[in-house]
């Protein structure tokens, strides 16, 4: 059908090219020096040579930052212990499966009855290709990864402000927005609007490019026909034998697309953080944290609630309550401390640090976010709508619907993400009871998938401001706060250093937490060696 | 970092929206009547009720078309037999693994020494979401599917005509082409070029959209800074703790992009046939054919080379040579015949059909194509270049390099697709010996991946014009030939009907073969019942 290929080359040119292609090593030098292989600031595990024997480090929190810090410090020869509030590793890198129970702040308990193999990641759920630190730990500990489908051209884009509220296919709005832009720029080019900006040769090449890229026809128009249908799809696809002929589809007008602000949805998958390839661990995001935890399992004390952090020039003293034994208080001492407790909690705790770090801790509010998982009796989004993985976007308060990127085509119950939002919408949903949240997610989602009500089985929600000992989704740095406080938050205060996504320039991402931990322990190591 | 979210909504608006969202069933009616759920002409398995007991159908070829025809006809009560030239099912839907041997026309034999778990699909290798017939058979017989990564923003786009021959990251050329287009159209809009075309309100909305979609800055310029780096990526990514600050990247100029014709590469993934989500069967494309073959295994006679097809008004007589027994000739009789033998072979065979079908068979040449698989000692494309799956494009004769979409992050040897081209390039490569092809693929590929020579382990190639009893990749219909001959090719001729990708409007795709087979047997059934 379409031409996924390059122009031909003659045999002579082919052999000539083969002859000229020597010098691969020299070329690689050039590429590397040009930064083609660079990007991530992760350059491998930290170098922590020569730790003084017996030096102890207490790590607060067994989220991904604390786990990685513990693993690397112990590798380097430190005596390491971890205190963790929950009864599991991972922190916000958390996966809920059938049989799990969760009690949120306010006392409401949810019991998860999802089918075997189904799961819900209330926190991180995708790993971009450039998050090389997280990927490296996944690779190192043998965590199987599979693609996370972000962009699905057959998913929906829904705007209550356009198309009479009818959901549109992503491929339609993607193709049509681009096609109209190409047509308009082509017209402007032909009419001389770019004569002072581009050379004649470039204008000709641009017109040719706009036609191909924009799916314009021979007259540089974006309209119903083979070129546009090769991008947006047909009303009736080409078939086999003597079946009815293909029927081209008809583009949506630009005015309606602009009213619906559909460019917001189609730009998302083009952002660096959401570009393919993205990944998810097979079986749930917590597989990575669990794999690191398996390496340092004996070092972790679970259900230990830290209540006070004190320090002097000889070490740290951390008071914690043992939830396994009626909250009995204990004190743990160590030479050094890596604290990964969220600032939302740390700010309320008795904490012996200097004024600059204290001010930094108080300067960072936490963003609200909620995720609502819905289990349905069958994969109607695949069976009825041919949507396999990916995300439908809406301007309704649920913000999006994300389809499972595993188990494609299987029968039986399956879980999708029925809401995932931030800010005011998230506060509204978090304020509801778990049952009310499900109802709201079903009501809104029914506008995109009318099958919702008849196919619904059960749901589960996590509003991050109600998660005990977390109380927020991620540190919401303002630009001003970052300028004034970021270095003070990250600087070692006596014998204490903070780590976690809040102590990074990649907030809300596991990569930020891991890079923060690696940077923190390298600096701590240098100070301990001094 | 970036805002994968919608604008907020007040609690009152939220509750109001919930209240108004009744009527899901009515809405689904509306959606369905608007064709939102349509597209594919596949509407489920064929209805073949009431077959006359004992009626026999002989199927020629156990490729995906023949297998599906056999399965459905037998389900309907027909007596079915299949004759297949190869010693395996699947035809061009073929997977080569370690231990396999292949002798091409000309007599050269290749032995595959790929590592366990590695494989090579010389034929089809991806299944678009809208190929619902193929997907339905995969689902029905429990074939596990995983995403095929088509677009990889971190793969390369390489043009020997631009960038001094240096490969560019896909994310750079994608972001920069779109960004420059947005900036140019923004300028034209601001300067009044669209005043007669769009309303003032639409012009304002368009400017806002171009800024977001094109990653323009506050002055509607596409240049180095946070907005463009949020699309194309940074020179140094944001990191953790006190690591060095992020460094924005610098866009490439439009002139160089136009010279390199990079829009060809970035438009490919936007074509209907290559839009996400695409799939591949876990373990190799032949898993689908094998799964159908398992249902009809007892009906298949392998290594049976059909040499003559005769028919009269009572039935068909097919002569075949038994390669298991020195080519002994046999004759198979049946009431009806479904022939899926490629036209490239059928055209050379003694075949008793009318002049219209004969002319149609002779009117369709077969396109050349070759694929070259290369096994390397390690996944340097992942480890060194952070390319996980997807495709790098080049204007060199290898046309593209495709990275394996399975086993991400694993150690050990791995196979990539080092060349996949059509037309003249494919003829050139097919004319070489298998060893020469590998050398050429390595030479060309080294310009994109300098690690090629030092990491190479072994290769395997299939040039379709040298595949015995296939002799070509797919039926290359011209528009004129299709107008004149297509219906004559597909029409039942006496007791014979043709099926396969060549008898479809989806050439070169398995979906075309399957839809062709389903359409053919439905018509055959109606004729047999008449």
Outline the structure in words.
The structure is a homodimer of 530-residue chains. Chain A has 18 helices and 25 strands. In chain A, strands 12-2-1-16-25 form a five-stranded parallel β-sheet, covered by helices on one side. A four-stranded mixed β-sheet of chain A has the order 10-9-20-21. Chain A has three domains: 56-87 and 302-364 and 477-529, FAD/NAD(P)-binding domain, CATH 3.50.50; 97-151 and 277-286 and 367-466, Polyamine Oxidase, Chain A, domain 2; 168-260, de novo design (two linked rop proteins) (Up-down Bundle). Chain A is α/β, with parallel strands linked by helices and 530 residues long. The N and C termini of chain A lie far apart (67 Å). At the A-B interface, helix 1, helix 2, helix 4, strand 8 and helix 5 of A face helix 1, helix 2, helix 4, strand 8 and helix 5 of B.
The order of strands across the largest sheet of chain A is: 12-2-1-16-25
- Percent helix of chain A: 25-40%
Query: What value does the Rg of chain A take, in angstroms?
Result: 27 Å
The top-level CATH class of the largest domain in chain A is Alpha Beta
């Amino acid at each position: 059908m379409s031409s996924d290929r390059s122009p031909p080359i003659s045999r002579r040119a082919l052999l000539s090219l083969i002859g000229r292609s020597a010098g691969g090593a020299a070329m690689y030098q050039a590429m590397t020096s040009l930064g083609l292989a660079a990007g991530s600031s992760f350059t491998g595990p930290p170098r922590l040579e020569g730790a003084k024997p017996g030096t102890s480090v207490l790590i607060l929190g067994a989220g991904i930052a604390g786990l990685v810090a513990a693993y690397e410090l112990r590798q380097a020869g430190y005596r390491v212990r971890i205190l963790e509030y929950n009864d599991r590793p991972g922190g916000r890198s958390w996966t809920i499966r059938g049989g799990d129970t969760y009690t949120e702040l306010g006392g409401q308990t949810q019991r998860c009855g999802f089918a075997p193999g189904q799961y819900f990641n209330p926190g991180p759920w995708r790993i971009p290709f450039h998050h090389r630190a997280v990927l490296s730990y996944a690779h190192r500990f043998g965590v199987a990864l599979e693609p996370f489908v972000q962009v699905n051209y057959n998913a929906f884009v829904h705007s209550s402000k356009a198309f009479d509220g009818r959901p549109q296919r992503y491929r339609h709005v993607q193709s049509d927005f681009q096609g109209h832009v190409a047509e308009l720029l082509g017209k402007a080019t032909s009419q001389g609007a770019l004569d002072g900006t581009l050379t004649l040769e470039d204008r000709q090449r641009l017109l040719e490019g706009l036609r191909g890229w924009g799916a314009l026809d021979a007259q540089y128009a974006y309209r119903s026909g083979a070129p546009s249908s090769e991008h947006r799809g047909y009303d009736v696809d080409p078939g086999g034998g003597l079946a009815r002929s293909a029927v081209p589809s008809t583009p949506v007008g630009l005015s309606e697309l602009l009213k619906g602000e559909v460019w917001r949805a189609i730009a998302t998958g083009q952002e660096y953080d959401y570009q393919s390839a993205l990944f998810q661990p097979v079986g749930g995001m917590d597989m990575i944290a669990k794999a690191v935890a398996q390496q340092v399992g004996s070092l972790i004390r679970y259900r230990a609630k830290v209540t006070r952090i004190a320090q002097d020039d000889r070490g740290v003293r951390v008071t914690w309550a043992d939830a396994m034994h009626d909250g009995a208080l204990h004190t743990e001492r160590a030479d050094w401390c890596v604290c990964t407790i969220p600032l939302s909690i740390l700010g309320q705790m008795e904490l012996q640090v200097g004024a600059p770090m204290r001010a930094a801790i108080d300067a960072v509010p936490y963003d609200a976010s909620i995720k609502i998982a819905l289990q349905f009796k069958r994969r109607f989004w695949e069976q009825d709508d041919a949507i396999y993985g990916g995300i439908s976007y809406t301007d309704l308060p649920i913000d999006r619907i994300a389809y499972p990127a595993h188990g494609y085509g299987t029968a039986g119950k399956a879980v999708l993400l029925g809401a995932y939002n931030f800010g005011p919408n998230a506060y509204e949903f978090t304020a509801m009871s778990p049952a009310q949240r499900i109802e709201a997610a079903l009501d809104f989602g029914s506008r995109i998938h009318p099958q919702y009500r008849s196919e619904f089985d059960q749901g589960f929600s996590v509003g991050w401001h109600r998660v005990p000992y977390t109380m927020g989704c991620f540190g919401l740095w303002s630009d001003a706060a970052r300028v004034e406080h970021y270095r003070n938050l990250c600087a070692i205060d006596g014998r204490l250093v903070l780590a976690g996504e809040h102590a990074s320039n990649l907030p809300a991402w596991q990569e930020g937490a891991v890079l923060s931990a690696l940077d923190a322990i390298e600096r701590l190591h240098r100070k301990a060696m001094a």
